[in-house]
Amino acid sequence: QVQLVESGGGSVQAGRSLRLSCRGSGGIFGRCGVGWYRQTPGKEREYVSSISSLYATTRYIDSVKGRFTISKDNAKNTLYLQMNNLKPEDTAMYYCAACWDSGTYQYWGQGTQVTVSS
């Protein structure tokens, strides 16, 4: 069974940085495209970034371009999201996800909270 476990969230002031990690099982990051989503209370889960399995092609939503960087280390089975110059609107629960199929990711982590104060 695939497991994804996020870590690295916390509370920081605007302008600071955090690096989120997502540890996966079963070599999943070498086999599947993976991504990060975020969600705030009362809102739908929002796509943030993704990286493909074959060519490690990266994508970002416009609001994080130039500030966030997604990467992965297949040998360590770990996905990262480096978040720089954080803004209060980045406050959310962040989830990693793996294996895109039939319009959605098949596996999800439990989330890690990021809180950015002004």
Task: Draw up the topology in text.
Blueprint: E1 4-7, E2 10-13, E3 18-24, H1 28-31, E4 34-39, E5 46-51, E6 58-60, E7 68-73, E8 78-83, E9 92-101, E10 104-108, E11 112-117
Parallel strand pairs: 2-11
Antiparallel strand pairs: 1-3, 3-8, 4-5, 4-9, 5-6, 7-8, 9-10, 9-11
Plain-language structure description:
The structure is a single chain. By secondary structure, this protein is mostly beta strands. The chain has one helix and eleven strands; from the N terminus they run E-E-E-H-E-E-E-E-E-E-E-E. The chain has one helix at residues 28-31; strands at residues 4-7, 10-13, 18-24, 34-39, 46-51, 58-60, 68-73, 78-83, 92-101, 104-108, 112-117. The longest helix has 4 residues, at 28-31. It is globular and about 40 Å long. The mean pLDDT is 95.
Largest sheet: 7 strands, mixed
Class by SSE composition: mainly beta
Percent helix, as a range, is under 10%
Distance between the termini: 40 Å
For the secondary structure, the number of strands is: 11
Strand content: over 45%
**Shape assignment:** globular
